[in-house]
Design a protein that fits this description.
Blueprint (H helix, E strand, L loop, with lengths): L14 H52 L5 E7 L2 E11 L5 E12 L2 E2 L5 E8 L2
Antiparallel strand pairs: 1-2, 2-3, 3-4, 3-5
Length: about 130
């Protein structure tokens, strides 16, 4: 009697079971990859917003120390990134105070982005 002719229950997975397991694993890995991509994109966006806010706050502090006069736009570098900073000063109903608006945009490929990364509005006194 041949050892292959004995009837023993088969052990292991069928081809269909293996294919179904591979499909489930592919779907799970695809979802995980998408979640990691969204997380990385969100982190990059938050980093841009935080650094742009620091640029705006630094600009506000400089203007408060030097005295805010006139509108301007300039480029600054902070943490190895370039930023387009624009400032607008408007009169208020009180003669000794001005409304100051600072917009910060990221500079990519030597061009300022269309969207504002951070906007800071404050009231400053005139010396």
């Amino acid at each position: 009697m041949n050892r292959f002719s004995q009837s023993q229950p088969q052990r292991g997975f069928t081809l269909i079971e293996v294919l179904i397991a591979l499909v489930v694993a592919a779907i799970a890995l695809s979802a995980l990859s998408r979640a990691l991509g969204v997380s990385a994109q969100s982190q990059s966006y938050l980093e841009e917003k935080i650094v742009a806010t620091w640029v705006a706050q630094n600009t506000l502090l400089q203007l408060q120390l030097e005295g805010a006069q006139g509108n301007f736009a300039e480029r600054q570098i902070l943490f190895g990134r370039e930023w387009q900073v624009s400032r607008e000063i408007e009169n208020t109903e009180l003669a000794d105070f001005k409304k100051l608006r600072i917009d910060v945009r990221a500079v990519v490929n030597n061009q300022a982005a269309d969207r504002v990364s951070s906007r800071l509005i404050s009231v400053v006194g005139q010396p």
